[in-house]
Design brief:
This protein is mainly alpha-helical. The chain has twelve helices and no strands. 71% of the residues lie in helices and 0% in strands. α1 packs parallel to α9.
Length: 339
């Protein structure tokens, strides 16, 4: 357990969790800057030689960041659409189904045109076909049964499906196995990409919370006593004071930032997914060797090999070593092959 403590001070933790939490706390204090308790806290913080109070503040933000890191998996599940309330909203699924249909139909049109024209298919249309195909496979998993109700979830499921569809290797159970052979440099690149997704995802959540708080403060600030019973429509403008209008504007701004952060997080998932796919492309042969086996020569047999390894990891289905060739033992430097 103590060996994991350095990770609470590395770049991935600071970017992914501490920075969004710090920004959230500062914005939350700003939202309540008109309250007496906030003024007292700020006054104490800016006193001369108030380093001990600043240390308490940093410790509080750090603790909240650790809590955020501990709930990271739950945050992903919620934003992907596995959990309620998102999983229970049919409109989200219909919207993603419509987006998939649009992309799939566009690719299908280009594909049919290429088949029809053959060698006469223009080069610029080929590039358009390639872009349409890339957009489709990055945004959605190939099987409709795997589609999720959110754009974020489908982007993650798309790269999770890559290794299984291409190699027969199920990415989720075999990722821990693969991590044992991935180089430190590549692992660092993967952690950087994941930390960027964490950062923007947390900003998405925090700004949504800030929008809700600002809206609540806007409603709280309404002056209902100014509403005349005899002429409610004419007196409605008196209910909304400048402070209530300001909080409403802040709520709308925070909601807009939350939406932009969500869309940007999807773009970052694409970049993260490209690295995950490259890890399987580059390191699966090394994993087979570490498991003690030589990869078969044909694609179909390689696929069967990784399916067998995946089933062992998922369902504890016994792996039959006699069905596969063992890896060649590497000779130690300076050893004599004839001894």
């Amino acid at each position: 357990m103590l060996s994991s403590l350095p990770k609470l001070a590395d770049k991935a933790f600071i970017l992914g969790f501490f920075l969004p939490t710090l920004l959230f706390v500062i914005c939350l204090i700003a939202l309540f800057s008109d309250q007496e308790w906030t003024k007292t806290v700020l006054q104490a913080a800016f006193e001369k030689d108030a380093w001990d109070k600043l240390a308490y503040f940093v410790l509080a933000v750090w603790s909240l960041s650790v809590l955020l890191m501990m709930t990271n998996h739950l945050q992903f599940r919620l934003l992907e659409g596995y959990l309620k309330p998102i999983s229970g909203i049919g409109w989200f699924r219909k919207r993603e189904a419509a987006r998939f249909k649009e992309k799939n139909e566009r690719f299908g049109e280009l594909n049919d045109e290429w088949k029809r024209l053959g060698n006469k298919f223009p080069e610029e249309r080929k590039r358009e076909w390639l872009k349409a195909r890339a957009d489709l496979v990055r945004a959605f998993p190939p099987k409709a049964a795997l589609h999720l109700p959110t754009r974020f979830g489908n982007a993650i499921r798309a790269f999770e499906s890559y290794s299984r569809d291409v190699y027969g290797a199920d990415s989720i159970p075999l990722w821990l196995h693969l991590s044992t052979v991935v180089s430190k440099e590549f692992t660092a690149a993967l952690e950087d990409a994941r930390s960027q997704v964490n950062c923007i995802m947390n900003i998405c959540y925090f700004t949504a919370i800030l929008a809700a708080v600002a809206l609540a403060r806007s409603i709280e600030g309404l002056d209902w006593s100014a509403l005349a019973v005899s002429q409610p429509c004419c007196e409605l403008a008196k209910v909304i004071n400048w402070q209530s209008a300001l909080f409403l504007a802040l709520a709308l701004a925070a909601a807009g930032v939350s939406r932009l952060a969500y869309l940007f997080s999807v773009v970052l998932v694409y970049a993260w997914g490209d690295l995950v796919k490259a890890a399987f492309d580059c390191y699966l042969p090394a994993l087979a060797e570490k498991l003690g086996y030589k990869l078969p020569e044909t694609g179909a047999k390689r696929n069967a090999f990784w399916v067998a390894v995946s089933l062992q990891a998922i369902a504890w289905q016994p792996f039959k070593p006699e069905d596969w060739k063992p890896a060649e033992m590497k000779q130690a430097p300076g050893s004599d092959a004839h001894t």
